[in-house]
Amino acid sequence: MGKSATSKDAQALFHSLRSAYVATPTNLKIIDLYIMFAVVTAVIRVVYMAIVGSFPFNSFLSGVPSCVGTAVLAVCLRIQVNKENKEFKDLPPERAFADFVLCNLVLHLVIMNFLG
């Protein structure tokens, strides 16, 4: 009895999330895909290091924070570009994207410096 109620609740939750995500603008969906790509790349790097080993340890230590940092910056971009967010209503999307690019440039310069 409890299992079917839990299953129905989970289905209702997924249905409501899917119906809400359908109304999301395309530019936010593209940013979401970019975030997913960065996170999946970080997970693949960690799994690869766990399976194969950590011989070029500097590349692992610079690659994973690069992926995670890029994902965090993309989440910040998504928050700033979202029209429903009233906190950044005066910020034009071009400025948010310029901030994203500049912060990514600084992040990757630091990562390249860390590689040695």
UniProtKB/TrEMBL annotation:
The keyword Membrane applies. This is Dolichyl-diphosphooligosaccharide--protein glycosyltransferase subunit DAD1. It comes from the Eukaryota. One of its GO terms (cellular component) is oligosaccharyltransferase complex. Belongs to the DAD/OST2 family. The keyword Transmembrane helix applies. GO terms for biological process: protein N-linked glycosylation. The gene is DAD-1. It is found in: Endoplasmic reticulum membrane. Signal peptide: none annotated. It is a multi-pass membrane protein. InterPro entries: DAD/Ost2 (IPR003038). The chain crosses the membrane at residues 33-51, 57-77, 97-115. Keywords: Apoptosis, Endoplasmic reticulum, Membrane, Transmembrane, Transmembrane helix.
